[in-house]
Design goal:
- The structure is a single chain.
- With about 400 residues, this protein is mainly alpha-helical.
- Helices cover about 75% and strands about 5% of the residues.
- The chain has a 3-stranded antiparallel β-sheet with strand order 2-1-3.
- Strand 1 and strand 2 form a beta hairpin.
- Helix 9 packs across helix 10.
Amino acid sequence: MIRVAATAFAYTAINADGKQVKGTIEAASLDAARANLKNQGMTPISVEKPNAFNKELSINIGGKVKAKDLQVFCKQMQSILHAGVTVVQALGMLGDQCDNKKLQNAVQEVRVLVEKGDTLAGAMSTMPDVFPSILINMVEAGEASGSLEVTFERMAQHFEKDAKIKGMVMQAMIYPIILLIVIIAVVIIMLVKVVPSFQDTFDSAGASLPGLTLAVVAISNFLIQKWPFFLGGVVLAVVLIRMFMQTDRGAVFFGTLSMKMPIFGDLTVKSACARLTRTLSTLMASGIPMVAAMEIVTKLMSNRLIQVAVEDAKNEVERGVALSQPLEDCGIFPPLLCHMTRIGEETGNMEEMLEKVADYYDEEVEAATKAVTAILEPLIIVLMALIVVPIMGAIMAPMLSIYSVAENS
């Protein structure tokens, strides 16, 4: 069962202590929002969709809830439930132990809602920015089957491996980003500080300067005299790129670019395959139907092109087509994933087969990350040389010419 997408409603109500309170509540409809408030012991005065005047502002003090935070939470829940503690008591214990402040507040709110009679999945669904849809649906399936402890154990393993994959990808990305920032800083310092110190020498010499030197001096003067325009251009470019990325065409463009880029493209595809198969395996092993599981997986794909491919595959499966067929037809996923999926369909052992594929791609992502790091180190050094050496050449060429003229005279 997939939960209907909730909408935030702004409300004003009287709580159990007779005090007027304001806030927002997630619900499928206006009537459902009023019913949820009544279930929480409040008397609604007004309930409406939020606008610029009544929207509740929230400050994320604890920061974003990461996969690592959720992994620790699920592991602790599994251990406490295994000891025979009730869900309410477990939430009360964990509400004071979470390191992430945002998760801690969410757990405490979930405990209050569960105490008032809501299901654990229902309470979690009121905070979709903290608890992802995969966790909510898994908890719902666990409550229905009476295997909540097993659910949290599976989710702890899922978030642990998901955090590992993200960490490896981030590790591959952070090194070149830092080096590029260093390169940009070195170039700016050279153009703003080093080149102007030689400019007086060039002017006093009166000799004609090489075209490369003239170009470097012109860039240096522009940065010094008109840096607000340069800074404004950079900011404008960043804003326009971000706006384009938020459009469907932009998301597809950058999704395609990330998959076709040399070095990084292979890492992008393999990390997506690992997440796709791991999530599908986890959901289906808990009894969630394939179509419902794929709808959840679609929302978890960060690459828009892959997201569209998974969504199309879900629609094909809904019509009775085997999953392996649309995965192969889209031309995005490696043949191994498609073949292993087909074997899982033919043997009726889909969950286990997907888990094996996920384990394989976890190892592939780790190997790809090491390869990317090893390749980028010399490439970044070469890039730095290609940028810095011409600037140094533009400075040294006229200087050598001036010294040569001085020696001959």
